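Notes on consecutive records. When two proteins share a document, each keeps its own sequence and its own token line. Never mix them. Below: protein one.
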Amino acid sequence: MKINIFNLAFSLLVATLLSGCNLEETNPIETKTKIGIMLSDVGLGDQSFSDAAFHGLVRARDELGIIFDYRELQDTKTYEHGLIELVEADHDLIVGLGFMVQDELEKVAGQYPDQLFLLVDAVSEVENIISTYF
């Protein structure tokens, strides 16, 4: 039940953020919102936080037409490296999942002030980071 609530909450959060976007008529592929997510330290298969967020993005893809990509700590070795990869892949929103990513997310947000970030499960005062805390 907790995972379903998290999926719903995450999907609604993404939908809310996307509803404010003003998209001009252009190529539909070019106008799709791209979201990148840096998963929590355990990554996919944790049957908890990362899996719930991933399934929420799958649902947002299927229902809202977003495009998403993700990074896992086991592959990138540091949160900072994974976050920078996602920024350089030109995503509209970069999500840092979990309080443990906060320090490196804030560091990367400072390096990319025009990039929009979302920090889940912690609160940041950095201007280009939206925080959500459960």
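Protein two starts on the next line and is unrelated to protein one.
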Amino acid sequence: MEELRCTSCGRKLAESTGYVRLNIKCSRCKTVNSFSMAQSAESAQSHNPACHRASSDEVGKHGGQRP
């Protein structure tokens, strides 16, 4: 778990296990903090079965129908 802290005053804003893009306004100093992690988007998509597409081999074997 990663702590997300304000880039201006250092106040702890949140804890996160994964995110793609996150904007959090600090309640202490009112700075808008932008966090992004490009790798999370790829790993989240690869672990989501709804995002997977049948390869051309699978389509040929099953006549366009998923097994």
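For the record: Residues 38-46 form the longest helix (9 residues).
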